[in-house]
């Protein structure tokens, strides 16, 4: 059981007001809030041991390097990766996906096929389209049904010996659908295709076991799981990471440089050119500690209750249509009310201190599927409460009255 009232004390931002009203933060799928424990780690870094890593002989540099590498091991353990050098620091999910897409430029040829799903965020579509343009490979799409679930029989039919890569998110940011990645990975492997899972939305709710999943690449962003922005991770199987060429050239990623020839550093540094987000990496480790202390099973159970309660309350309001009613779903509710534009609802809710997301959520193909411009999206984390949902529902009713 979660002690939510105590947990809320960890998040100073939850005490603020917006437009004179107590903040109700339901935009967690865009970015989560940061607990004091993580803020303290950031302040401690800049107060006491800010220095560049892997370079200096001096004490500060050593302390920063140690903390940064210890955080890498925390991330490794959290993902249950076999080796810490399979954990590549990135600036976030988008960076991780682009790193892999760029690496496959030299491994794909005309006639090869890439499969993505209809439920992807733009950052798991556009890099693969760019990869297809560079290589002549073609992009196939696993379609979805009205409930926002992938149609697996169609996925099976898309697989063939030309399939080289499959990309799918673990959880859809626009609808909350939890995708059956175990099935997708197993099937793709039967055809020798590599699988990248976009874990941006799953990592705040599920602890992924990359070895049990046998996934080839798994990416996420720290800011979705109570960490800072501008840092994330790419997990890659050692053999794949050794096969892919470096993404960016520069300092830190080399073994030897001369004007005739440069050799690259071993993993993970081969993919970590330049000065990284050192403080961010250390704080990412602290965020993982924080989430694990609460416990992912507790988090899943509590958020599921919030999802059920929120869905029930919303459906009592006339004209509400919820998009994405998959059986396996996380705490995201995407909805519209009659013909009211989602932006108008979002603007009025903000006047009442309530933060929701409106628009296409960087997933325009999903909006096209439902033939709508966008939705209002309320997404919950473990620090939200049923009382907040009640306030949201009465504010929404007021907004609907004003807009009808
Ligand atoms: N994929 C999904 C499913 C997401 O929800 C997001 C963030 N909204 C991203 C990718 C991109 O993450 P970032 O902006 O942190 O790189």
Automatic annotation (TrEMBL):
For this protein, the Enzyme Commission number is 2.8.1.7
State if Mitochondrion is listed as a keyword.
Answer: no
Classify the source by domain of life. Answer: Bacteria
What Gene Ontology terms describe what this protein does at the molecular function level? cysteine desulfurase activity; pyridoxal phosphate binding
Could you say which cofactors this protein requires? Answer: pyridoxal 5'-phosphate
Q: Where is the Aminotransferase class V domain?
A: 24-392
* Keyword Transferase part of the UniProt annotation: yes
Q: Which residues form the signal peptide?
A: none
PROSITE patterns per UniProt: AA_TRANSFER_CLASS_5
Q: Which UniProt keywords apply?
A: Pyridoxal phosphate, Transferase
Q: What family is this protein classified in?
A: Belongs to the class-V pyridoxal-phosphate-dependent aminotransferase family. Csd subfamily.
- Protein name per Swiss-Prot or TrEMBL: Cysteine desulfurase
Q: Which species is listed as the source?
A: Winogradskyella endarachnes
């Amino acid at each position: 059981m979660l002690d939510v009232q105590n947990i809320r004390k960890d998040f100073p931002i939850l005490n603020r007001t917006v437009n004179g009203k107590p903040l109700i933060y339901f935009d967690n799928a865009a970015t989560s809030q940061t607990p004091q424990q993580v803020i303290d780690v950031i302040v401690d870094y800049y107060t006491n041991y800010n220095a560049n890593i892997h370079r200096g002989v001096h004490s500060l540099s050593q302390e920063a390097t140690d903390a940064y590498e210890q955080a890498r091991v925390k991330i490794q353990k959290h993902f249950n990766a076999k080796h810490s050098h399979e954990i590549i620091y990135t600036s976030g999910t988008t960076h991780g996906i682009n790193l892999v897409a760029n690496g496959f430029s030299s491994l794909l040829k005309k006639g090869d096929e890439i499969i993505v799903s209809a439920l992807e965020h733009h950052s798991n579509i556009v890099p693969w389209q760019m990869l297809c343009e560079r290589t002549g490979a073609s992009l196939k799409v696993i379609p979805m049904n009205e409930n926002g679930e992938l149609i697996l029989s169609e996925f099976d039919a898309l697989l063939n010996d030309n399939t080289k890569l499959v990309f799918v998110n673990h959880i859809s940011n626009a609808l909350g659908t939890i995708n059956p990645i175990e099935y997708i990975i197993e099937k793709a492997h039967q055809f020798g295709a590599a699988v990248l899972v976009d874990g941006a939305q799953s990592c705040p709710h599920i602890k992924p076991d990359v070895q049990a999943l046998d996934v080839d690449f798994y990416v996420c962003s720290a800011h979705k799981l109570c960490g800072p922005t501008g840092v994330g991770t790419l997990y890659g199987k050692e053999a794949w990471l050794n096969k892919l060429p470096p993404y960016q050239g520069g300092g830190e990623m080399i073994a030897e440089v001369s004007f005739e020839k440069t050799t690259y550093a071993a993993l993970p540094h081969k993919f970590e050119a330049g000065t990284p987000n050192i403080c961010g990496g250390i704080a990412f480790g602290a965020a993982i500690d924080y989430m694990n202390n609460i416990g992912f099973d507790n988090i899943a159970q509590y958020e599921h209750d919030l999802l059920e309660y929120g869905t029930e309350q919303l459906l009592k309001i006339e004209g509400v249509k919820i998009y994405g009613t998959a059986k396996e779903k996380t705490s995201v509710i995407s909805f519209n009310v009659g013909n009211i534009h989602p932006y108008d609802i979002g603007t009025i809710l903000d006047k009442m201190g309530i933060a929701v997301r409106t628009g296409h959520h960087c997933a325009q193909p999903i909006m096209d599927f439902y033939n709508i411009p966008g939705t209002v999206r309320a997404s919950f984390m473990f620090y939200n409460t049923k009382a907040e949902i009640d306030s949201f529902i009465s504010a929404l009713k007021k907004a609907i009255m004003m807009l009808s």
